[in-house]
Amino acid sequence: MTDALLSLIARRFGTPTYVYDLDVVDAQVGRLRTAFPFAELRYAVKANANGALLQHLVALGVGAEALTEGELERALRAGFQPAHIVLGGPGHTPGLARRAAEAGVGLVSLDSVGAWRVWRETEAPGTRFLVRVNPGFDPHTHEHLATAAATSKFGEPSETALAIAHEVASTGRLAGFHVHAGSMLDEETVADLVVAALEPLYAGFPDADLVDFGGGLAVPHPPLAGFAAAYERFVRRSGKRVLLEPGRFVIAEAGTLLTRVLHVKGGARRHVVADAGMADLLRPALYGAHHPVRLVEGGESDRGGTGPSGGAGGRSGVEPGLPTDVDGPLCENADRLGQDVELPAVAAGDLLAVGTAGAYGFAMASNYAGSLRPAEVVVRAGEARLVRRRERPEDLWRLEEDA
Ligand SMILES: Cc1ncc(COP(=O)(O)O)c(C=O)c1O
């Protein structure tokens, strides 16, 4: 997206605003299909559940991976075929199971013995099951994202997974096994470890025809070739059908968070206080995640002149040479979009673009401290369209009753 288009979007729809470039989504899905021609894609809705994005993915022929009732309903509403939805996640209730079965969800990933107990009691003759395995290795990613770790809550160790699989197979509904090793995976050896954990499990189950390798590809540098080679070797040996559940890879780089500078402060560091922060994009506060931040457009006010807000040290009067934090507007030290950001002189009103923000951005946005969640805009062939309006104060108490 050009800076001119980003400026136009900020003027038209205000800030903070998330912008998603659907042409980039198409390109990312194309990259996946080229790298993994043997696999069926099930987009992980948790990465970004915007309805227009989901509808776009339906049109591209991608399926969905959902984990909660809300995600399941969103996926169904967007038009994903129930047969192409995988219901995963570690917390299945009888209500969720009933709803998924009634909607005709084709595949469920059982995260635990407890999940199988819930599903065993559910009338779901048409549902098939994967058993999620905890492979118990360190996938070398942030500890919050390392779901393959033996200490993580996800999946069951092999012996337990096998015990569940035998019970499921006795009902004739075992589809196969599932590992999601983590997110932001950037080492290709992870795929070898996943295959090594899964392959022996199939020995006793000739009818299990499916394997689900989860999602997790890192951006911006995914180990596509290494993952593809490991999975393809397994497919050649076993002949299984393959599912992948990419989330971040599909939408992260298509997304930009537009935010305007409110104030620039000096001191030990330069603090560029923006109108977006942890309530809009939590990842820097939650994971210390890095997002590129750049200046798109100079603002209308606070330029040049002398005195505390302008003058010799740059347009804001604050040395751009100081180490720079781009902070949010809330009362938390963690409320920031970036630390040690390379930014030229900036002033109030300037427009900043936070990159690689399409995944786990709006999805994790909150109303903390009365924050109003940002607008969402999609761009298709250079045309911008509002697909979710900015929240208004009345949205904050819409669901409440008076005392
Ligand atoms: C089971 C499962 N599948 C897929 C994903 C998507 O991961 P990513 O967005 O890193 O591709 C996740 C993310 O948490 C997950 O838990």
Can you lay out the helices and strands and say which pair or pack?
Blueprint: H1 3-13, E1 17-21, H2 22-35, E2 39-44, H3 51-59, E3 63-66, H4 69-78, E4 85-87, H5 94-103, E5 107-110, H6 113-120, E6 128-132, H7 158-170, E7 174-178, H8 189-198, E8 210-212, H9 224-238, E9 241-244, H10 248-251, E10 255-265, E11 270-274, H11 283-287, E12 293-297, E13 324-327, E14 336-338, E15 351-354, E16 375-380, E17 383-388, H12 393-396
Parallel strand pairs: 1-16, 2-3, 2-9, 3-4, 4-5, 5-6, 6-7, 7-8, 8-9, 11-13
Antiparallel strand pairs: 1-10, 10-11, 10-15, 12-15, 13-14, 16-17
Helix pairs in contact: 3-4, 8-9
The structure holds pyridoxal-5'-phosphate.
Describe this structure in words.
The chain is α/β, with parallel strands linked by helices. The chain folds into two domains: 3-16 and 255-357 and 374-391, Lyase, Ornithine Decarboxylase, Chain A, domain 1; 22-251, TIM Barrel (Alpha-Beta Barrel). Helix content is 28%, strand content 21%. The chain is built from twelve helices and 17 strands. The strands form two sheets. Strands 1, 10, 11, 12, 13, 14, 15, 16 and 17 form a nine-stranded mixed β-sheet that branches. Helix 3 (51-59) packs across helix 4 (69-78) and helix 8 packs parallel to helix 9 (224-238). Residues 301-314 have low confidence and may be disordered. Pyridoxal-5'-phosphate binds at residues 44, 46-47, 65, 88, 180, 183, 214-217, 245-249, 359.
